[in-house]
Write a structure and sequence with these properties.
This is Protein zer-1 homolog. This protein is of the alpha/beta class. The protein contains 32 helices and twelve strands.
Length: 752
């Protein structure tokens, strides 16, 4: 750990192998064509240490198909599971039965909608080893008859060694229903019981007395805001009979529960539970008003007791701001520690988690979060647990933005960065119509290094951004960021990736944006970056150049040129794109008409954006002329006039001009050196190489040499057909290369 942050070390080799095997299941398993499930290949036995990890990885990668893989773990001689989490998976009764001989210790079946009460029989087969069960949803304890919503009285867990039981989102609200009481009678060793969000009556709590070892009771969201004071007090009275309780949670997530006599009610409860050291009363008024005369304890109802933990999130009258709170740990929003503990502790409760995330966001806004590593880990876990909750995703992504741009961002490990990016994209895909989500996601992504952090998911992020750009927005802000990100990505990727983003509709989308701007007669940074993006993704990518032509891009080019002829950066970007098209031999005939040639020729005289517009226009014309006089358009301007203007423009440029251009390859330029029949074409090529190797030797001298430029230049230099000005430029290029080679490295220079 460095300043609280983990080391930037790779995953353990075992974890990498497990992830690979889960992604490529055929490496160790074979699909049974009859059943459609996977079996372990002959001769393979899975080490016990990786079985739990492998199943978790299979669930995480694709929970909807994990049921196809359960036969892998059916033979305990070849695989052994102890802890399994099947949250939101499509596992059914038959699949779970395949595991009945496994020595399961911990079992989670949250929101597994295809399980029925039949699976209770399988769970009971784990009775010898099973210590912890977590169940959310309705199916396991309800009758399978579609015409009834009644609890099934035969639904019983026979696991006498069970220590922890969590059942959430069940309605046990009928006081005459004995299912819960019967259920608990079979669990004599239970120490932790969680019935959060269940419908309970006060009478149900009396059945908890059948659990002599019960130490922890979670009844979060059992008390109701619309319930009477008498009903809620009766519930607390029954809880007070559980004398061995050390932890009690009676928090409320939505509207606060108000007692008529909060101080007395809390005092009676605490007095009845002498061993209590942990109490969560979040979302209630039980802390009462602060009593300034009480010096030892600022919460009157706690009777001066000290606690290890006290939950005060969203309590009325903000008790979390009081001094001398009687607990080692407190949830609330009075301090950074309180907020971070809230985010950490309420991971499974989306409403309370969202409240805590909003409070964390306000701390980030104020710039007062010091433990950003802990904040990040809590944020990531919360967002990962609630992928379908837009409130959690939006609140979480808002804080991720501040971490990504904050002064501690350099401490982020590569693993953390990828997790942030993946979760942001998850949220943007799931909630593409939520403006706040898209805005937060785009802003967060902007602060990552494109070449180092983002390229691993280039296809996915491109698809998300393009889909976003196709949707109408009230303002251009989100579109502006999206285009900026796409352009940054396009600058860093290879030819195959550029072709991919073209297939995803990048050209069509950029042209759509440009057309809308033209219709409004607007030329802003969005217009300029849209052209820049197309310039980048058409670079040495013929299929994208063809897409531009086929989508009537040239018509929009002429419209932009006519309407915004004085916008230097716009002209440079458009002409850069024209240069890419001109490099594609099979597309040059599309540019070979009188209107386009006239436009390109006139731009030779442009002084917009330094020499860039003139330079790009010259490059287009040089490539068009390289096809020879037979391919030149029959109408005016004539080839001779254009080549004459081309020469005059080149000789006007300053060879030391700074450039706003990025070449990845000189091959398109080097191909022009062989055209001795058109020296104007050669002149443009050698001038370009001379300028770039002179002004940016570190970047372009090695590139030119690596691409075999020196022997090709030497051929032209020694050919008697070459003109003198071309030879002089080649000589200068070779001198630039030699000077670069002779330049000493900085580390070799004396420190004098």
């Amino acid at each position: 750990m460095t300043n609280g942050w983990p080391d930037n070390s790779p995953d353990r080799l075992e974890d990498i192998c497990v992830q690979f095997c889960a992604t490529n299941i055929e490496t160790f398993a074979a699909k049974n064509e009859t059943s459609g499930q996977y079996d372990l290949q002959e001769g393979i036995t899975l080490p016990k240490s990786i079985c739990d990890k492998l199943l978790k990885a299979l669930v995480d990668i694709k929970p909807s198909t994990v049921h196809e893989n359960f036969t892998i773990f059916s033979d305990t001689a070849r695989s052994q599971l102890s802890s399994i989490c099947l949250r939101k998976s499509r596992i059914n009764d038959k699949c779970l039965k395949l595991l009945e001989n496994q020595p399961i210790v911990d079992l989670e079946l949250s929101n597994c909608q295809e399980l029925t009460r039949e699976s209770l029989k399988t769970i009971n087969k784990f009775q010898r080893t099973l210590k912890s069960v977590r169940i959310e949803g309705r199916s396991l304890f309800y009758n399978c008859d579609e015409n009834t919503n009644a609890l099934d009285e035969s639904a019983v867990l026979e696991c006498p060694n069970l220590r922890t039981l969590c059942i959430q989102d069940y309605d046990f609200n009928n006081p005459d229903d004995l299912v819960l009481s019967t259920f608990l009678l079979t669990l004599p060793r239970l120490t932790h019981l969680d019935l959060s969000n269940c419908g309970l009556c006060a009478e149900h709590v009396t059945s908890f007395q059948s659990l002599p070892q019960l130490r922890s009771l979670n009844l979060s969201n059992i008390m109701k805001e619309d319930g009477s004071d008498t009903e809620n007090k009766q519930l607390l009275t029954h809880i007070g009979q559980l004398k061995s309780l050390r932890h009690l949670d009676i928090s409320v997530a939505d509207d606060p529960v108000k007692f008529l006599q909060p101080d007395k009610t809390l005092s009676d409860l605490v007095s009845a539970l002498p061993q209590l050291v942990s109490l969560d009363i979040s979302g209630t008024n039980l802390p009462g008003y602060e009593n300034a005369e009480e010096e030892e304890c600022c919460i009157v109802g706690l009777n001066g007791r000290q606690f290890k933990f006290l939950g005060l999130l969203d309590c009325l009258h903000d008790p979390c701001f009081r001094e001398n709170l009687p607990a080692e740990q407190v949830t609330g929003h009075g301090t950074e520690d309180q907020v971070l503990l809230s985010v950490q502790r309420y991971q499974d409760r989306s409403v309370m988690l969202c409240s805590a995330l909003n409070k964390l966001f306000h701390l980030f806004q104020a710039g007062v979060v010091s433990d950003q590593c802990k904040a990040l880990e809590c944020l990531l876990e919360g967002m990962q647990r609630h992928p379908a909750d837009p409130h959690v995703q939006i609140s979480g992504s808002a804080s991720l933005f501040y971490i990504a741009k904050g002064d501690q961002k350099e401490n982020l490990t590569q693993k953390q960065k990828r997790k942030v990016i993946d979760l942001v994209l998850d949220g943007m895909e799931a909630f593409s119509s939520e403006k706040k989500m898209m805005r937060n996601g785009c802003l967060t992504l902007c602060y990552f290094n494109v070449s180092q952090d983002v390229l691993y998911c280039y296809s996915r992020i491109s698809r998300v951004l393009l889909d976003m750009l196709k949707v109408e927005q009230e303002d251009d802000f989100i579109h502006r960021i999206g285009i900026y990100l796409l352009n940054c990505l396009a600058c860093q990727v290879n030819k195959q990736q550029k072709a991919l983003v073209g297939k995803l509709g990048a050209i069509d989308t950029m042209l759509m944006i440009i057309k809308k701007k033209l219709d409004k007669e607007e030329c802003d940074d969005m217009m300029e970056v849209a052209w820049s993006s197309m310039w980048n993704i058409t670079d040495e990518t013929a299929e994208n150049c063809k897409r531009f032509i086929n989508c009537d891009g040239m018509l929009l080019f002429l419209r932009c040129l006519k309407m915004f002829k004085d916008r230097g950066e716009l002209l440079r970007n458009m002409m850069g794109l024209m240069g890419n098209i001109a490099e594609v031999k099979d597309l040059r005939h599309q540019l070979m008409n009188s209107s386009y040639i006239t436009v390109f020729s006139d731009l030779l005289d442009s002084t917009s954006d330094g020499i860039e517009v003139s330079y790009n226009a010259a490059g287009v014309l040089a490539h068009l002329a390289s096809d020879g006089p037979d391919r030149w358009c029959k109408d005016k301007p004539s080839r001779e006039d254009v080549l004459s203007r081309l020469t005059r423009a080149i000789k006007r440029w300053d060879i030391t001009s700074k450039r706003n251009i990025n070449y990845r390859s000189f091959e398109p330029i080097l191909r022009l050196l062989v055209h001795f029949d058109t020296p104007e074409v050669q002149l443009w090529a050698v001038w370009a190489l001379c300028n770039l190797t002179k002004v940016y030797p570190e970047k372009y001298c090695e590139l030119l040499e690596n691409e075999g430029g020196i022997p090709r230049l030497s051929v032209v230099l020694n050919d008697p057909r070459s003109q003198q000005d071309i030879k002089e430029l080649i000589t200068s290029i070779l001198q630039n290369l030699q000077a670069f080679k002779e330049k000493p490295d900085e580390e070799d220079m004396d420190n004098t």
